[in-house]
């Protein structure tokens, strides 16, 4: 199992979640987050914003599904053909174990 953690633009969340659901990946945790990337923030006029609003999507999926999930997020979270600064990041980490609390079952 792997944890796919993606940080994307808020306006892209709806389409990303819809496409993940259509592809058979309904289980997602979504959080509002704030931060900055390599560009170190954004200057609009005389105002500098160094905490940009984003959404974080957390998903634990089987190893065999990782590439499909990453591909979907990459395709639908990107702005335009070439993409732009601030489109986000995807991090993939191993998950050793997972449990369902209500059933006490191990695994997904």
UniProtKB/TrEMBL annotation:
<dbReference type="GO" id="GO:0030234">
    <property type="term" value="F:enzyme regulator activity"/>
</dbReference>
<dbReference type="GO" id="GO:0005524">
    <property type="term" value="F:ATP binding"/>
</dbReference>
<dbReference type="GO" id="GO:0006808">
    <property type="term" value="P:regulation of nitrogen utilization"/>
</dbReference>
<dbReference type="InterPro" id="IPR015867">
    <property type="entry name" value="N-reg_PII/ATP_PRibTrfase_C"/>
</dbReference>
<dbReference type="InterPro" id="IPR002187">
    <property type="entry name" value="N-reg_PII"/>
</dbReference>
<dbReference type="InterPro" id="IPR011322">
    <property type="entry name" value="N-reg_PII-like_a/b"/>
</dbReference>
<keyword id="KW-0804">Transcription</keyword>
<protein>
    <submittedName>
        <fullName>P-II family nitrogen regulator</fullName>
    </submittedName>
</protein>
<dbReference type="Pfam" id="PF00543">
    <property type="entry name" value="P-II"/>
</dbReference>
<dbReference type="GO" id="GO:0005829">
    <property type="term" value="C:cytosol"/>
</dbReference>
<comment type="function">
    <text>Could be involved in the regulation of nitrogen fixation.</text>
</comment>
<keyword id="KW-0805">Transcription regulation</keyword>
<keyword id="KW-0535">Nitrogen fixation</keyword>
């Amino acid at each position: 199992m792997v944890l796919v953690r993606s940080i994307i633009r808020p306006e892209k969340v709806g389409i990303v979640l819809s496409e993940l659901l259509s592809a058979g990946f309904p289980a997602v945790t979504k959080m509002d987050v704030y931060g900055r990337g390599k560009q170190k923030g954004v200057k609009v006029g005389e105002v500098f914003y160094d905490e940009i609003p984003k959404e974080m999507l957390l998903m634990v999926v089987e190893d065999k599904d990782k590439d499909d999930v990453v591909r979907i997020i990459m395709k639908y979270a990107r702005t335009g053909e070439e993409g732009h600064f601030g489109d986000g990041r995807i991090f993939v980490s191993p998950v050793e174990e997972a449990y369902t609390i209500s059933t006490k079952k191990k695994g997904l």
